[in-house]
Design a protein that fits this description.
Elements (H helix, E strand, L loop, with lengths): L1 E6 L5 E7 L2 E8 L12 H23 L8 E7 L3 H18 L3 E5 H6 L13 E6 L4 E8 L2 E7 L5 H11 L6 H9 L24 H12 L6 H27 L3 E5 L6 H13 L3 E3 L3 H4 L4 H13 L19
Parallel strand pairs: 1-4, 4-5, 6-9, 9-10
Antiparallel strand pairs: 1-2, 2-3, 6-7, 7-8
Helix pairs in contact: 1-2, 4-5, 4-6, 4-7, 5-7, 7-8
Length: 330
């Protein structure tokens, strides 16, 4: 089954061709227009998607050596995300489905992230704990198999990626903030400043990062007593401490045999290193997607659509019945 997949939930336009679980092509167009604003401007994001989506589809088909006549179905992200961005991708997918008489498969963005590690690690044993961590979402998922999962915990307020971005903005480092903090933290002391770990004493696997942002702002207003590198290292360690604590507690709770990590923040070098060390210490498997599949991409959308059709024998939807679904996983 050859699937053309489209992802446009935020500020990256992505198109991929996936055939029977193998990625034939995967292309992404980012939107540097937001850099000068220190964050994503939804209306601008929608307009940039409109400009990019058609030529990007042409490139993805050419890279895969395919034409629309080779496509058996179209998969598209329907949520959660920015409403305007989602509508651009969905309406383009609907137009293609109608024009070429192929079915449409709606895909939940976070569900696709959960299984994105399986694009390159299809032998990961179950049960597994999935850490989905990005600019808009931070969640701990129990994954029973390729079609069954349940939420174990999530952030009560801000996502970890948002905390990185907002702290970077306070420090004047630019957007997106995560890579800037990761780079500077490499030369800083992670124990220079004791920033709070939200919900440190909790009977749940939920998380909180809003207090960390407030603490950083208060610290900066009182005068910079340490280097920017020390601030970045201390902030990064505080965030990673929480993520690893909740992930490892989830591993013990469900008796997991493996851990996967996905989402843009999974590119953070300290998170990757420390989570790998924790898993190795417990002799459990860890699967981390390559950087191209850590960020938002369409390959994970096409991969999950194919899995659902195969595992659940799900029938693709008629294009007329598919709508934007902004609801997160509960």
């Amino acid at each position: 089954m050859t699937i053309l997949a489209i992802e446009s939930s935020c500020d990256d336009t992505a198109v991929a061709i996936v055939r029977n679980g193998t990625v034939l092509s995967s292309v992404v167009s980012s939107q540097p227009i937001h850099n000068s604003y220190g964050g994503i401007v939804p209306e601008l994001a929608s307009r940039e998607h409109v400009k990019a989506i058609s030529p990007l589809t042409t490139v993805a088909l050419a890279d895969a050596g395919c034409t629309m006549q080779n496509v058996d179905a179209i998969a598209v992200t329907t949520g959660p995300g920015l409403a305007g961005s989602l509508v651009v991708g969905l309406n383009f997918a609907k137009g293609l489905a109608l024009a070429h008489s192929v079915p449409l498969i709606p895909v939940h963005h976070i569900e696709a992230h959960i299984y994105s590690a399986f694009l390159e690690h299809q032998d990961v044993p179950f049960p597994s704990v999935g850490l989905v961590v990005s600019g808009g979402h931070t969640a701990i998922i129990a994954v029973e198999d390729m079609a069954t999962y349940r939420m174990l915990g999530s952030t009560r307020d801000d996502a970890a990626g948002e905390a990185f971005d907002k702290v970077a903005k306070m420090l004047g480092l630019g957007y997106p903030g995560g890579p800037h903090i990761d780079r500077l933290a490499a030369n800083g002391n992670p124990h220079a400043i004791e920033f709070p770990r939200g919900m440190r004493v909790s009977n749940t696997l939920d998380m909180s990062f809003s207090g960390l942002k407030t603490a950083v702002r208060t610290y900066l207003q009182s005068g910079l007593k340490h280097s920017i590198e020390d601030v970045c290292a201390s902030v990064q360690t505080a965030i990673v401490d929480v993520l690893i604590d909740r992930t490892m507690r989830a591993v013990e709770e469900i008796g997991a045999l493996s851990v996967t990590i996905s989402g843009g923040v999974s590119a953070n070098s300290e998170l990757r290193r420390r989570l790998t060390e924790e898993c190795q210490r417990r002799s459990i498997r860890i699967a981390i997607p390559s950087l191209q599949y850590s960020i938002d991409n369409a390959a994970m959308i096409g991969f999950l659509a194919g899995v659902r059709c195969a595992v659940e024998q799900e029938k693709p939807s008629d294009w007329r019945t598919v709508t934007v679904n902004p609801n997160p996983i509960r």
